[in-house]
Amino acid sequence: RGRGAERSMSFLSRALVRALGGRALGAPVGPPAMEASSPLQAAATLCPRIFETRAATCGVPVQQTRGFAMKFYNPTTPGQRHKVTVRRDHLWKGKPFRALTKGKRSTGGRNNTGRITAFHRGGGHKRRLRLVDVHRTLYGVEGVVKRLEYDPNRSADIALVEYDSSGEVSSAISSNSYVRKRHAYILAPEGLKPGDRVISNGKDAPVSPGNAFKLRDIPVGVEIHNIELRPGKGGQLVRSAGVTATLMRREAEDGFCIVRLPSGEQRYVLGECMASIGAVGNKDHHNRKLGKAGASRWRGRRPVVRGVAMNPVDHPHGGGEGKSSGGRPSSTPWGKPTKGYKTRKKKKESDKFVHLSRHDAKRKKSR
């Protein structure tokens, strides 16, 4: 492995030297000057995409490809061949803050009567729930980000924040159920790092990632996440990895703001509702590849069975002699069309808050 990797990377180094016109790796190549302590470092600096692919396939340890968001694996087993994961070098390696966790009981997709209400659920690794503060109601209290952590219950990372507890601040902290022992978890936005200071609804606070404000106090055009739909209820919109919304404009007469969601939908939200600044972190989450079926089972996801492989009592496509094609347009187990059928209620209560639907936004964009 070591000798083959050396030959492969030396070939890459010679190719880079030829491409640079005979200049040695590590020599200045235009502004700004680049310094390299080794051919590997020079290769990674000059041609990161080539180096990433080469390192992933020729036996170079994955740890040498630092600087890339994704981690590739050598095909030592069939499950490793196509496996791609997100790097977690910047995340906390230890256990979570115990006071901010609680046990999670698995239901296996069953309700209180024992019937399956959520299909393809069951098994998986045991987890503990992280109590994430999506309300951000500690107004004016500044906190310091201690570390970033992995959360098995969501796609985004979370940040552990430590608050000061001086004077009247301590009483506000003690009344917040999501703050325990002066610590709280928040969603980690893109760009947040340990040592940064965050504040909620602070006077003269900067509009920087991690800070939270009421929508009426946020400048128009700023990217936001963790948006409330009702004041005090806690953030409900834009909380998964890599997503962001944009504050489009404020309506002065009725106190509403128009927010463009990741789907393209534009929605009216009260200006008194809270929102956090920035895009949610872990933006490369959607690029990962599990590599094998067992990785889905670790996450509590069971296999999906085709309708044509079932019996008639279980699915409209079921039954027939031998292999059949279903005999009807694709439908759900309850007989609804699966392709193109709108399942939203015709007269839903929240329709009055939709300024521009995602379907209209898509048609408007394609013109």
From TrEMBL:
InterPro entries: NA-bd_OB-fold, Rib_uL2_dom2, Ribosomal_uL2, Ribosomal_uL2_bac/org-type, Ribosomal_uL2_C, Ribosomal_uL2_CS, Ribosomal_uL2_dom3, Ribosomal_uL2_RNA-bd_dom
Record-level GO BP terms: cytoplasmic translation
Taxonomic superkingdom: Eukaryota
Residue stretches of biased makeup (Low complexity): 326-338
Keywords tagged on the record: Ribonucleoprotein, Ribosomal protein
UniProt-recorded Gene Ontology molecular function terms: RNA binding; structural constituent of ribosome; transferase activity
Region span, Disordered: 282-367
Gene3D superfamilies to which the protein is assigned, alphabetical: 2.30.30.30, Nucleic acid-binding proteins, Ribosomal protein L2, domain 3
NCBIfam families: rplB_bact
Family: Belongs to the universal ribosomal protein uL2 family.
Protein name: Large ribosomal subunit protein uL2m
Species for this entry: Chloropicon roscoffensis
